């Protein structure tokens, strides 16, 4: 099938390459001409394992084409994927400017029946909004259908999640569109494509759920909100553990053995961040309020998460007293490992607070090498973890990068001026560190 993917961000690029790889002709368009010319040269703006090779091979096969002409991309295709950004406004409501612009352009470019599919995470009711805008801007009477098809990709595992999804959700009021969507995704549903053969992640078959567009939109928000709730819940239990002398690692292990609870997304720490959970939980709470429904759980989930970051600062004060002039080495910065994304990363709040209190902060992250925009100026970025802890009064781990499990703590002990460790992800070997003479503080551990 001929598919146009509008937006070559993280979702659009991964979706485009996946559709090309399973046998479709894909045009990825973006109004950012610089981005398109880089992509044509094989320069990928984001790091995702396996993505670069897949983009290159499909580009060479011409199953994946990059273009800056959105209208011509729409005209040449049967299915249009909308994969543009919906950043949060200060109120928590997502900004739909990019979606509206694209819908207008689609209206003006319709030259036959097309399916307009939304993959961006959009407020409930956006499928209907897109339909209305297209209709208002249509210069002819061509038929079209709207489909909501949310994405469930995780940063750092996006390629795997795209090819081997746990479910495909199709929300549409049109039987014709649903039939076409089933054909489009047939190789993915049956896991019958070259990249899957011999891949350890291959599934028997991928479940597909057909529903109305509003329910589909809510599945996306409710899934992210549920996962965020699970983490905030566990963090609250971790805080109780600290008060009563229990250990969160044992508690979550014991809870997770109950298959109704499960062991995933049960890691206590300094809280969730990134470009999805914070935005989506706020947006769902906003929608609930807009429609007169009470979002007290969601609001509590956000509150617990905002507080959780400050646990690190409280612990630092407990260990060091006055923070002014103290040297603090921070390991990690990205909101989770295997990504350079620092959007709404808990580390940012923690470091900003340390800086505000007058600490000298040295940061080492395996991939984030410069001061991100959301981090106040003043932290020193160093090239290796040992430089971060030289003469430090405190080491704080905020992101559980795999390489931190291999650190030489004998060397670290020699380098530090006081032997304090706060492990914001319960990632290090508490017993070994205590045996070495470190003062170790985890989260509920
Ligand atoms: C999340 C969802 O997991 C994806 O299914 C969804 O498609 C995506 O948002 C999206 O809406 O685009 P992502 O933001 O990449 O994916 O990150 P996660 O791996 O879910 O982690 C989110 C945050 O939760 C991170 O800050 C992580 O450190 C934290 N976390 C995760 C915990 O604190 N504890 C855990 O047990 C798990």
- Order of strands across the main sheet: 3-2-1-4-5-6
Net shape: elongated
Q: How many helices?
A: 17
Question: Residue share in helices?
Answer: 40-55%
Please identify the structural class as seen in this structure: alpha/beta
The mean pLDDT is 96
Which small-molecule ligands are present, each listed once?
uridine-5'-diphosphate-glucuronic acid
Strand fraction equals 5-15%
**pLDDT < 50 stretches:** none
Largest beta-sheet details: 6 strands, parallel
Radius of gyration: 24 Å
Number of strands: 14
Layout of helices and strands:
Elements: E1 2-6, H1 10-21, E2 25-29, H2 33-40, H3 51-60, E3 64-67, H4 70-75, E4 79-82, H5 97-109, E5 114-118, H6 126-137, E6 144-148, H7 158-163, E7 168-171, H8 175-184, H9 186-190, E8 208-211, H10 213-244, H11 248-256, H12 277-290, H13 296-320, E9 327-331, H14 346-356, E10 360-364, E11 380-381, H15 385-389, E12 394-397, H16 409-415, E13 420-423, H17 430-435, E14 439-441
Parallel strand pairs: 1-2, 1-4, 2-3, 4-5, 5-6, 7-8, 9-10, 9-12, 10-11, 12-13, 13-14
Helix pairs in contact: 1-3, 5-6, 10-12, 10-13, 12-13, 13-14
The structure holds uridine-5'-diphosphate-glucuronic acid.
What does this entry look like structurally?
By secondary structure, this protein is α/β, with parallel strands linked by helices. Helices cover 43% and strands 13% of the residues. It contains 17 helices and 14 strands. It has helices at residues 10-21, 33-40, 51-60, 70-75, 97-109, 126-137, 158-163, 175-184, 186-190, 213-244, 248-256, 277-290, 296-320, 346-356, 385-389, 409-415, 430-435; strands at 2-6, 25-29, 64-67, 79-82, 114-118, 144-148, 168-171, 208-211, 327-331, 360-364, 380-381, 394-397, 420-423, 439-441. The strands form 3 sheets. Strands 3-2-1-4-5-6 form a 6-stranded parallel β-sheet, with helices on both faces. Strand 5 (114-118), helix 6 and strand 6 (144-148) form a beta-alpha-beta unit. Helix 1 (10-21) crosses helix 3 (51-60) and helix 10 packs parallel to helix 13 (296-320). The mean pLDDT is 96.
């Amino acid at each position: 099938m001929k598919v146009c993917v509008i937006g070559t961000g993280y979702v659009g690029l991964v979706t485009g390459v996946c559709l090309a790889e399973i046998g479709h002709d894909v045009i990825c368009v973006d109004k950012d001409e610089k981005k398109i010319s880089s992509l044509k040269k094989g320069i990928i703006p984001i790091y995702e394992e396996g993505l670069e090779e897949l983009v290159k091979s499909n580009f060479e096969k011409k199953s994946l084409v990059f273009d800056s002409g959105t209208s011509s991309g729409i005209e040449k295709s049967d299915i249009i994927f909308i994969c543009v950004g919906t950043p949060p406004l200060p109120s928590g409501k997502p900004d739909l400017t990019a979606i509206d612009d694209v819908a207008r352009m689609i209206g003006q470019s319709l030259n036959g029946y097309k399916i307009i599919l939304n993959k961006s995470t959009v407020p409930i009711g956006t499928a209907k909004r897109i339909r209305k805008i297209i209709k208002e801007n249509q210069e002819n009477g061509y038929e079209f259908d709207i489909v909501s098809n949310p994405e469930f990709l995780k940063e750092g595992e996006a390629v795997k999640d795209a090819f081997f999804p746990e479910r495909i959700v199709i929300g549409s009021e049109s039987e014709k569109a649903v039939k076409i969507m089933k054909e489009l995704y047939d190789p993915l549903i049956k896991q019958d494509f070259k990249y899957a053969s011999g891949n350890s992640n291959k599934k028997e078959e991928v479940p597909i759920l057909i529903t109305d567009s509003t329910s589909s939109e809510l599945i996306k928000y409710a899934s992210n909100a549920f996962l965020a709730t699970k983490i905030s819940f566990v963090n609250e239990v971790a805080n109780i553990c600290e008060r009563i002398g229990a250990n969160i690692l044992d508690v979550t292990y014991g809870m997770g053995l109950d298959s109704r609870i499960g062991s995933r997304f049960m890691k206590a720490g300094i809280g969730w961040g990134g470009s999805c959970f914070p935005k989506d939980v706020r947006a769902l709470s906003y929608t609930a309020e807009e429609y007169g429904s009470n979002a007290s759980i969601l609001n509590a989930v956000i509150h617990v998460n905002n507080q959780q970051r400050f646990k690190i600062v409280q612990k630092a004060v407990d260990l060091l007293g006055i923070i002014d002039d103290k040297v603090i080495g921070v390991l990690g910065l990205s909101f989770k490992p295997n990504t350079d994304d620092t959007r709404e990363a808990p580390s940012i709040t923690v470091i900003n607070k340390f800086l505000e209190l007058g600490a000298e902060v040295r940061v080492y992250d395996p991939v984030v090498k410069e001061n991100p925009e959301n981090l106040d100026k003043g932290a020193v970025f160093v090239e290796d973890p040992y430089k971060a802890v030289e003469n430090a009064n405190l080491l704080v781990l905020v992101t559980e990068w795999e390489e931190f499990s291999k650190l030489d703590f004998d060397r670290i002990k020699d380098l530090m001026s006081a032997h304090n460790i706060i492990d914001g992800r319960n990632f290090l070997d508490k017993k070994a560190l205590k045996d070495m003479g470190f003062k170790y503080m985890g989260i509920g551990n």
